[in-house]
Each structure stands twice: as structure tokens, then as C-alpha cells.
Predict the 3D structure of the following.
Amino acid sequence: MRTVWKFDVPMEDVFRVSLPRGARILGVQAMPAQDDVAGAESVHFWALVDTDAPEEIRRFYLATTGNPFPVPAHLLNDVWHVGSFQLSGGSFVGHLFGVTFPIDEDQANGKVS
């Protein structure tokens, strides 16, 4: 069966999510917290999935405005923009990217070229 699922976006530079193989990511958005905590927001992405497909691990990179983007030029074709979102009334802007190659914390923090 095909349906749309929601996935959490952790506030980490690099993270992995298990998705059904072939899932098509539709977008990313910040949402107010469900428990009415003042100022609390969470970020999610939605994907069109086949619930019968086997799971696969997908890698993501969360960039922020004005900070270095640690992906080498020769790998830019292997990165796609999922979407951008704002938190705290626009004082934080995040840009979620999917990546097809391994990326670790050192790369995300600009320590590896």
C-alpha cells in the first residue's frame, strides 16, 4: 500500500533514518509542539512510501544559514535539497539535504576536506 508517513528531523548535523525503499520525500516543515509547551517546536519531513517495501537507511545533512557547507564540490551531484524551515520566529533557518554517500560528524563540522 502507498501512503504518506511523517518522520522526525533531529537537530543534528548528520543523521540517518530508516525508510521503505524507494520512498519519495515530499517536504520538510517546523511544527508547534503537540503538548503546548511555550516556544517548543519540532521539525518533520513527509515521504510517500510503499508500506510493503523493505527498509533502507537514508542519510541526511542539516545545514544552517551562514555556516560552511562541508560537501566537497565533486560530490554536489549526490546531494539534494529536501527543503528549508524556520524555527523561533525565523531566527533559526535550517536547510535539510539528502546525501547518497557516507558523511560523518567530522565532515559535517568542517574537520575533513
Summary: Residues 2-108 form one domain. The chain has a mean pLDDT of 87. Residues 77 and 99 are 9 Å apart (CA to CA).
